[in-house]
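Propose amino acids for all 155 sites.
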């Protein structure tokens, strides 16, 4: 019997996301297979909410959804920006890495970050406060439920 904590292959899982206007699309999330239905998230997603890198998930291929089985101890940040100079974004990413985070993905107007929860919310929020107020929106990807209530997994 194999070790269920090790990933055996890279799998891009399609997870369904819904926009504010109700349109749906699939985000392919980088995972490693643990069993037939369990996967470890390798990179925090840019749009799918509720999971972060390091989480072990149970995947439902019919609904294209994930249920967290074990939290990996990481906080996902989804940073959307418009009209922000590239040097500001590059400096911000470098600061993120200096405090212990990592950049898991990037599009023209999106940066996906992962931070170990041990860094703490005050440090993350102080970092986010270094960005311009205009043209920037960010959110925690795996801290709140659908009703906006804290999930509390980090306590």
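Proposal:
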């Amino acid at each position: 019997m194999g070790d269920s904590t090790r990933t055996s292959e890279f799998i891009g899982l399609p997870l369904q996301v819904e926009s504010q206007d109700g349109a749906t699309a699939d985000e392919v999330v980088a995972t490693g297979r643990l069993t037939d239905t369990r996967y470890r998230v390798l990179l925090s997603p840019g749009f799918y909410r509720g999971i972060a890198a390091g989480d072990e998930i149970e995947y439902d291929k019919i609904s294209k959804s994930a249920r967290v089985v074990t939290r990996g101890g990481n906080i996902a940040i989804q940073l959307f920006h418009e009209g922000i100079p590239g040097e500001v974004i590059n400096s911000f990413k470098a600061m993120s890495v200096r405090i212990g985070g990592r950049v898991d993905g990037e599009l023209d107007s999106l940066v996906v970050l992962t931070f170990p929860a041990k860094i703490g919310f005050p440090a993350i929020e102080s970092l986010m406060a270094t960005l311009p107020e205009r043209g920037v929106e960010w959110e925690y990807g795996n801290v709140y439920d659908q009703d906006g209530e804290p999930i509390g997994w980090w306590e």
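Residues 28 and 44 are 11 Å apart (CA to CA). The chain has two helices and nine strands.
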